[in-house]
């Protein structure tokens, strides 16, 4: 029988890889990846600009180091034999900026400056917000919660309540725009900032709770007898030479070498589970039917929901899957010949505060990330949760030419670059990023409970459920496949 993986993006390719690594395939089983597009990788697409030879990324361009999910990704990169492609981001890419109150402001780069200096657009040093949260928690007699509760709130409400509205407006809101194109007033704090949420829930204060957890972690740390057994940690932020598509290529080739059947230009149009829970039938766009012993869905939740529309007995599951919203993003890559056109701004990029009421999410300074010094390479990100508001008129999206003009005007306004760009490359990524709105944890738990109770032969992976970053997606596929292999 066949184990079918729906979707050949990073989640699907990782799932196939780990399924093979964990030894979860019996002799009479095979793995088949079904991908609707002409190539694998999903939103991870890289190509070279013919005019500047710069690598352009359609989706993410860097990977963060630090933590178990990051270590897992770096271990995968080593196992695939592409460690030599790893490069630290340029040394000048360390600064981050916020566009607020009509101006661009650099976020503090040291803890001392952040805590004890006034850094615009903030009107007070950050120590004020930290002390405010701690004293306010004690004043309000917020008590630790010993049992798990289903209480959740938006990230905006949480940070406004604890650290103050400026923290929510000038730090958290722009940050979520950059991470997932999301509205902080809708995004779940329990999911996106779980450590802070749990610190307050368990200890009554975010700041004091984090300090206690740090002390407990230090006291309970495991002593490694042989330091040579430790894996070399990944860089704090890095990219792959030639683009992140190189990771997709490596996974694709590795899977094929291990006997995984990868089918591109093939779409799943309908999914029916067998009544006995022993398998499922997939109807493909070429008219063929595929009998499966198990399905691993690596496609967005809303797409999976459409495949189940003809299954009235699973209406609850369809509704739950469809309740995970998605947003669309516009990316506009602009290059300039003059390397000095950026003026004083050097860093990773700038994020826009939603208070500015712009269609702009942020501008990424690619030339500093990749260490280019002979030209300027920017990626303007627009839309997100406000995509329809800014870019859709009478149910019709603006043209690429109109979107390019809007992006150029954002660059003029934010970075004061009046020069006409040498090259422009505009892409619209429809429904590309899931939104982890308030109650997301409980929503996903209900989906998993439904699959278990109904004994449906399906495992869910991908960014719709457990995180949007490269590290999150790979780690979720790994843990899901380990769990599947133990059944």
Automatic annotation (TrEMBL):
Subcellular localization(s) per the UniProt record: Mitochondrion inner membrane
Signal peptide interval? 1-16
Q: Which GO terms describe its cellular component?
A: mitochondrial inner membrane
Q: How is the cofactor bound?
A: Binds 1 FAD per subunit.
Catalysed reactions, as listed in the record: protoporphyrinogen IX + 3 O2 = protoporphyrin IX + 3 H2O2
**Pathway participation:** Porphyrin-containing compound metabolism; protoporphyrin-IX biosynthesis; protoporphyrin-IX from protoporphyrinogen-IX: step 1/1
Q: E.C. number, please?
A: 1.3.3.4
| InterPro entries recorded | Amino_oxidase, FAD/NAD-bd_sf, Protoporphyrinogen_oxidase, Zeta_carotene_desat/Oxidored
Ranges for the Amine oxidase domain?
10-474
Cofactor dependency: FAD
Lineage, top-rank taxon, reads Eukaryota
Give the protein's function: Catalyzes the 6-electron oxidation of protoporphyrinogen-IX to form protoporphyrin-IX.
Family to which the UniProt record says this protein belongs: Belongs to the protoporphyrinogen/coproporphyrinogen oxidase family. Protoporphyrinogen oxidase subfamily.
Q: What is this protein called?
A: Protoporphyrinogen oxidase
Q: Which organism encodes this protein?
A: Sipha flava (yellow sugarcane aphid)
């Amino acid at each position: 029988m066949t184990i079918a993986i729906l979707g050949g993006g990073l989640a699907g390719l990782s799932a196939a890889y780990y399924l093979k690594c964990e030894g979860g395939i019996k002799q009479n089983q095979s793995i088949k990846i079904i991908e609707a597009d002409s190539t694998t990788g999903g939103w991870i697409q890289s190509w070279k600009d013919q005019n500047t030879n710069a690598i352009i990324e359609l989706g993410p361009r860097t990977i963060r180091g630090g933590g178990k999910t990051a270590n897992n990704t770096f271990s995968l990169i080593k196992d695939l034999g592409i460690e030599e492609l790893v490069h630290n981001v340029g040394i000048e890419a360390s600064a981050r900026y916020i566009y607020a109150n009509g101006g661009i402001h650099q976020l503090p780069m040291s803890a001392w400056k952040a805590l004890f200096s006034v850094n615009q657009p903030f009107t007070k040093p950050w120590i004020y917000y930290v002390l405010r949260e701690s004293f306010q928690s004690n004043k309000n007699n917020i008590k630790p919660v010993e049992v798990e509760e289903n209480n959740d709130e938006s990230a905006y409400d949480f940070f406004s309540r604890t650290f103050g509205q400026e923290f929510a407006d000038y730090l958290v809101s722009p940050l979520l725009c950059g991470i997932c194109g999301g509205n902080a007033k809708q995004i779940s704090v329990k999911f996106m900032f779980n450590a802070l949420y749990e610190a307050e829930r368990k200890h009554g204060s975010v700041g004091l709770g984090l300090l206690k957890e740090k002390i407990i972690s230090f006291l309970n740390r495991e002593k490694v007898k042989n330091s040579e057994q430790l894996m070399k940690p990944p860089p704090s932020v890095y990219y792959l030479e030639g683009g992140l598509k190189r990771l997709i290529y490596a996974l694709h080739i590795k899977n094929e070498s291990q006997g995984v059947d990868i089918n591109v230009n093939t779409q799943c149009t309908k999914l029916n589970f067998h009544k006995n829970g022993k398998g499922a039938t997939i109807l493909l766009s070429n008219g063929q039917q595929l009998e499966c012993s198990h399905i691993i869905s690596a496609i967005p939740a809303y797409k999976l929901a459409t495949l189940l529309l003809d299954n009235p007995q699973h209406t609850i599951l369809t509704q739950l899957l469809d309740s995970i919203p998605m947003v669309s993003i516009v990316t506009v890559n602009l290059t300039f010949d003059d390397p000095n056109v950026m003026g004083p701004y050097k860093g990773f990029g700038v994020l826009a505060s939603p208070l500015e009421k712009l269609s702009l999410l942020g501008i990424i300074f690619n030339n500093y990330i990749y260490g280019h010094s002979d030209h300027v390479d920017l990626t303007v990100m627009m839309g997100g949760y406000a995509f329809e508001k800014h870019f859709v008129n009478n149910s019709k999206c603006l043209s690429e030419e109109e979107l390019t003009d809007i992006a150029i005007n954002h660059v003029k306004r934010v970075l004061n670059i009046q020069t006409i760009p040498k090259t422009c490359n505009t892409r619209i990524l429809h429904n590309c990023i899931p939104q982890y709105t308030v109650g997301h944890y409980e929503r996903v738990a209900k989906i998993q409970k439904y699959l278990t109770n109904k004994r449906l032969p399906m495992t869910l992976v991908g960014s719709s459920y457990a995180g949007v970053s490269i590290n999150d997606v790979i780690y979720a596929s790994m843990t899901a496949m380990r769990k599947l292999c133990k059944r």
